[in-house]
Amino acid sequence: MTDFTTTSASITPDRTPRRVRHELRFRRLAVQTVQRLTPHLIRITLAGDDLEGFASPGFDDHAKIFFPDAAGQLALPTMGPDGPVWPAGGRPAMRDYTPRRHDARANTLELDFALHDAGPATQWAERARPGDVLGVGGPRGSFIVPTAFDWHLLIGDDTALPAIARRLAELPAGARVVVLAEVDSEADQVPFETQAELTLKWVHRNGAEPGLSPVLLDTLKAMELPAGDFHAWVGCESAIAKALRAHLVGERGANPKWTRASGYWRRGAAATHDTHDE
Ligand SMILES: Cc1cc2nc3c(=O)[nH]c(=O)nc-3n(C[C@H](O)[C@H](O)[C@H](O)COP(=O)(O)OP(=O)(O)OC[C@H]3O[C@@H](n4cnc5c(N)ncnc54)[C@H](O)[C@@H]3O)c2cc1C
What we know:
This protein has 278 residues and is α+β, with helices and mostly antiparallel strands. It folds into two domains: 18-141, Beta Barrel (Elongation Factor Tu (Ef-tu), domain 3); 145-275, Nucleotide-binding domain of ferredoxin-NADP reductase (FNR) module (Rossmann fold). Helices cover 16% and strands 35% of the residues. The chain is built from five helices and 17 strands. The chain has a seven-stranded antiparallel β-sheet. The protein has a six-stranded mixed β-sheet with strand order 14-13-12-15-16-17, with helices on both faces. A hairpin with a 2-residue loop joins β2 and β3 (41-47). α4 packs parallel to α5. It binds flavin-adenine dinucleotide.
């Protein structure tokens, strides 16, 4: 006799995130185009033979970006048996950026730079011209978050717009997603493409200093969220990311295992990457 009973375990979709490692490579690329997307966001499209084999399957992947010195010279490491080996003469400035879009056919890689007061990355992006060189290391690994949740929550500031845009692009039709995004003003909002059912809430700093505006947390606290199991993703200033995570897990029933909160930058410190997960 056939047994038609189904246990709940057998129908629960697998929601365990998966890590994927990639061979670490350092690439020397050239700027192909520079586009000012909004007053505070510049898209740089990079190209070059070194892009061969580039892979970035995770929406919140990051690559280490190496900047040329004042004379336009770019120092890049080579891979030795014990890891990266630097040429004599010091290491260049390096910062983390999200591969916004990789087009293997066109052999291009887009990076979106959020502009702020100071820092080598911001300065470089503001002055970038076609032909300028830039180094790209990694991504070394990817974190693959399944899509089979009742709904998804994505929260971030300007620096997280590339990751949020990638997640929205990969979520399938039928998925439900709530996005809470902070920028300075309406002029800084970017369009998103998605097949998912999107509820989008933009909030504005209106000139307040980034990292000090309470607008993300205040808005989240006042937001009605859908019922059901959800995956929450947060990327913004570190102390704010930590507070958002605490609110989601402590007050809104977010499962800590399905909540990924990162400090994409930290107020008063250069080149930071804080993870606030357990
Ligand atoms: C995993 C990951 C992915 C990231 N992806 C992107 C991305 O795709 N696009 C992007 O624009 N950024 C992204 N960031 C953030 C970016 O790496 C930081 O903002 C970086 O510090 C910028 O470098 P900088 O040279 O301009 O400033 P830094 O020299 O690092 O910092 C100088 C000063 O500026 C402050 N500061 C840094 N960033 C900001 C900011 N955004 N707003 C206000 N003040 C700031 C610092 O606190 C410091 O006081 C990502 C970060 C991580 C960890």
